[in-house]
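[agent] plan:
  1. take the single chain provided in the ticket
  2. run structure prediction with default settings
  3. attach structure tokens to the ticket
  4. add a short note for the reviewer (M.T.)
[agent] executing step 1
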Amino acid sequence: MPYLLSFGHHVPAEVITNEALAARTGRDAVSIEKTTGIRERRYAPAATTVADLGLAAANICLANAALTAADIGLILFSSGSSERAFPGPASVLAAKLGLTATPAIDIPVASAGSLIALAFAADLAPRYGNVLVVASEIMSRCISDADPDTAILFGDGAGACIVSPTHGFAKIADTSLSTDGNYADALQLQHSGTLEMKGLSVIMQASRKIPRSIQDLLAKNSLTPAEVGTYLMHQANLNLIRKVASTLQLPEERFFVNVDRYGNTSSASLLIAASEWHAANPAPTAPILLTAFGAGFNWGSILALPA
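[agent] step 2 finished; step 3 output follows
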């Protein structure tokens, strides 16, 4: 059975407050926080790449696991904001880690990509050994102040996780992934374009599909939502997290939240949240549920049990 072994994350130093965005977008700073739960986000420097952010997160993750890059058998890299169509950042990261033959595969799925990568890692770890999952996004380059509804949401950052085939702090008990391409146009990024998002459609579908994914996966494993100790969710919007908690009839405190400090970092957000949570909770004693929803639409959940 595969295990979650370690997490790591990195965010750029530059803080972009709601007040700064208000001056650029015309949106009131108080209104931004009220409608999104976001107070600030981070923007990467101009010379920094998606792979650079991913490398910083990966190195922290490796250090937390007391491993070196040579101990990694497979890299899965999620990003929806990489600088070019191909090659993607996975091979660049592998080179930066000094690896010349280790397979490094890109998963270009915004928002849900890190969850998909973790689910794949759970299945592939018995074959490849330690799997390094990295999600890195520079969303600040994909948005435009001309679309304030989108511009106020996103930030930059990277997260990483190592999935081990033999040991860790939590064992991955089960995974669930789903796709509904009928809504693909509701969240998209064309080549050389800016992010296009039909926010109402995204929130409506996410608020329906995420709770069902959680309920179905838990029922399959003879658990109820109340038996899960912590929910680690893609940090899209505080109101969405609250809707999911309400649907599952759970206190909001069960859901780890850092969207207020980083905004929506797309696929990186789940791993950044997990990294911060695990740093404060190194030895969990109750089940953990990871869940995400993103472009495609793709969504799913992962159940992890204390080791």
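[agent] step 4 note for reviewer: The longest helix spans residues 199-220.
[agent] ticket updated
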